Structure formats: structure tokens, C-alpha cells
Amino acid sequence: MLKDTDFEVKSLENTELRIVKDVKPISYLKFLLVGILFGIIMVKGEMLSWFRIQEMFRFQSFHMYGIIGSAVAVGLISVFIIKKFNIKTISGEKITFTNKTFNKGQIFGGLCFGLGWAMTGACPGPLFAQIGSGATAIVVTLLSAILGTWVYGKFREKLPH
């Protein structure tokens, strides 16, 4: 068996499964509302537009690069603040950052991800928002993403990491 090189896989091996018994289904409503709001923002910001995505991959517009760059900047600043002020989670747990080792599988995965994104005009994150906004052809992309995830899980041990 190959040694796990993904931090996410390693971190799941040594954690306990926490089962919350007293959570009422109505409490999930806030997550649904935030998701709907996020989807509306993505539609209004044209982040789901196939044409905007094609412009990005053809280097014809700064729109998507500006959005992605802003997200990276917010992430960098957030991580800096978390580390500097030792901020904890809502439940009081310490937030730790672990360095990941680089491997060639990340290059292959990034190329497959980018190629799929360029061909379909859809990033996996907002697929549901695209479907909800009326782009029902994206259902094919969603099913392909699910199938690709399953295939990766099935052959993960044999793939380069």
C-alpha cells in the first residue's frame, strides 16, 4: 500500500467521529440561507458565466482574475491574523496549519481540473448555483464530477502521488 501523502487523508485517520445528537433539522436552515445568498452573489457577480470563464482562459478579461486574486488576498490576510493573534474556533479549539509536501500528482490534478473547467465553463464549487440559475446542461458536468471523484477514489492507490 502506498504511503498517504495528502494531509486531508492523514488528518482523518487520527480523528474521532463527533456525532451531534441534539441538532434539530431546522438549525440547518441558516446554512441553506447562506448557500442561497452565496449563489445569488455568484450569479450577480457573473462568476458563473460561461463567457466570463472563457474570457479568463483566453486572457481577454481581468474580471475573474480579480475575483480569484481578491479571494487569495483575503485568505492570506485571514491566515496571517489567525496565526498572529492565535485565534481559536468557535468551540475554543486551536487552529493549526500543517505544511503539505509537493508532489507530481498535484500537477496532473491541476491540469485535469483546469482543462475540465475550461471545457465545461464550470468549476465544481458553484455547479449547484449554475443549475439553480437555469443552466440545466450543467447537470452533465455535475454527474461527470461525481463520476471523476469516484474513479479517483477507486484508483487512488495506483495513481502518482
Structural write-up:
It is a single chain. This protein has 161 residues and is mostly helical. It contains 7 helices and no strands. The longest helix has 23 residues.
List keywords for this structure.
161 residues; mainly alpha; 7 helices; 59% helix
Rg calc: 19 Å
Q: Can you tell me the residue ranges where pLDDT is under 50 for at least 5 consecutive residues?
A: none
List the helices and strands in order. Answer: HHHHHHH
The main β sheet shows up as: none
The N- and C-terminal alpha carbons lie at a distance of: 12 Å
Q: Which term fits the overall shape?
A: globular
What is the overall number of helices? Answer: 7
The tally of beta strands, per DSSP, is 0
Secondary structural class: mainly alpha
Helical residues, percent: 55-70%
Q: How much of the residues is beta strand, in percent? A: under 5%
**Averaging pLDDT over every residue, what do you get?**
83
TL;DR of this structure?
The protein is 59% helix and 0% strand. It has seven helices and no strands.
What are the SSEs and their pairings?
Layout: H1 7-13, H2 29-44, H3 50-57, H4 63-85, H5 104-120, H6 127-132, H7 138-155
